[in-house]
Amino acid sequence: MVTIVSLSVIIVAIYILSVITDEFFVTSLDQISRAWKIPPDVAGASLMAMGSSAPELSIAVLALFKEGGTHSDVGIGTIVGSAVFNILVITGISAIIRDARVTLPAVARDTVFYLISIGFLLYAFWDGEITLVESFFFIVLYAGYIAFLFLVPVGGELETSPAEEKEEKEITEQKSRFQGIHNLIEKGIGFLAGDAETSYGRAFVVSIALIAGLSWILVDSAIIFADSLGIPPVIVALTILAGGTSAPDLIASIVVAKQGKGSMAVANAIGSNIFDILVCLGLPWMIALLFLDQPVIHVGTQDLLTSILILVSTVIILFIFLFTDRLLTKKEGWCLLGIYVAYVLWTLSGG
Questions:
Q1: How many domains is the chain built from?
Q2: Which has the closest alpha carbon to 17: 195, 217, 156?
Q3: Which residues, including other chains, have CB under 8 Å from residue 244's CB and lie 6 or more apart?
Q4: CB-CB contact of 299 with 291 (8 Å)
Q5: Residue 230 CA, distance from chain mean position
Q6: CB–CB of 105/267 below 8 Å?
Q7: pLDDT digits over 198-223, tens only?
Q8: CA 277/CA 274 separation, integer angstroms
Q9: Which alpha helices (H) appear in the chain, and where do they start and end?
Q10: pTM of this prediction?
Q11: Is 295 in a helix, a strand, or coil?
Q12: Which residues have a Cβ under 8 Å from the Cβ of 156 and sit 6 or more positions away?
């Protein structure tokens, strides 16, 4: 009974996350991008990445401060699993929905910063201790990444035509018209967030808050579900929590992929990983070291090299696919999904 109830809560939480992301978050993000005249690839790597990574940040904070930090590895494991999910599943499904044509300079830029982030993560973890200086440098490195996005533009991609946007909107409206529950949830969220097109600032902030709150519910439900099945916490972090908290990233990328914004979908996936590593780990560590009177934070280093190898391998595979013809095809998308299935099976087998 516990298994069924917890699984039902997970499904409902993810569904509500999809409504928030599809109807409010992406719409408000698009309006903010237009108001600030931000190129699609920059918007995907910054605003969309920061907002849709709110669940990972919530979990990292929760894991670090819960029961004296005994669950800190759960937060780290979730971020590693989420990073793999973002690269393989998000970009893979986006390509399956619609071939993603990208600008190579933008992909190269994000890939290089991502590899730098992984390298610094390895350096910080190597001695098993995180210091205040190291946690601060995580934030500084991310600030440098955001500054680089705006100061060194690499070009965006063509926006969808008004006809394509109208067609996409009509499809969404037709689906919603036959989904009473969907409309009810949408109205409830709209009461708090307002109109995402006119009050986009309010909608953006409220969406992030709701995403963060739902992620907490998702975490507790996923842990209960895993305990009822006897699954070790590390497997929960690398699979259930990683996939669940990456739902906003997945949904956001699917929406923009349908609109033909391939660079934005790919930039969101890689940009979210950069945010996860540098902010979702660095910020909670910095807060803990400043306010909990701890000289250092101890982290587990076992299987670290394996995790780093997995992260590096996935982004290299994606870059190779994108380098060919500047296009991520449906065939390559299915290949990425196949690699993720192999990764999950390897994790469940105790790899």
A1: 1
A2: 217
A3: 10, 13, 14, 55, 215, 218, 222
A4: no
A5: 27
A6: no
A7: 888 898 889 888 887 887 787 778 77
A8: 5
A9: 2-19, 26-35, 40-43, 49-52, 54-65, 72-85, 91-97, 104-125, 132-151, 162-177, 180-193, 200-229, 233-235, 242-245, 247-258, 262-275, 282-291, 304-323, 330-348
A10: 0.75
A11: coil
A12: 39, 40, 41, 42, 103, 106, 263
d(CA 32, CA 344): 36
Exposure on the CB side of residue 235, measured as CA atoms within 13 A: 15
At 61, which amino acid appears?
Answer: V
Q: Residue 309 corresponds to which amino acid?
A: L
DSSP states of 212-250 as a string?
Answer: HHHHHHHHHHHHHHHHHHT--HHHIIIIIIHHHHTHHHH
Residue 158: how many CA atoms within 13 Å on its side-chain side? Answer: 5
Ramachandran quadrant class, 152 (left: phi over 0; alpha: psi -120 to 50; beta: rest): beta
Distance, CA of 207 to CA of 20 (rounded, Å): 6
Full domain range(s) for residue 282:
2-348
**Residue 107 maps to which CATH number?**
1.20.1420.30
Count Cβ atoms below 10 Å from residue 34 Cβ, excluding itself.
Answer: 12
pLDDT digits (tens, 9 = 90+) for 62-120: 777 665 555 566 677 778 888 888 888 888 888 888 777 776 777 788 888 999 999 99
Task: Count CB atoms within 10 A of the CB of residue 187.
Answer: 9
Cα dihedral 201, 203, 206, 212 in deg (nearest 10): -100
Q: Per the structure block, which two tokens stand in for 64? A: 């670090």
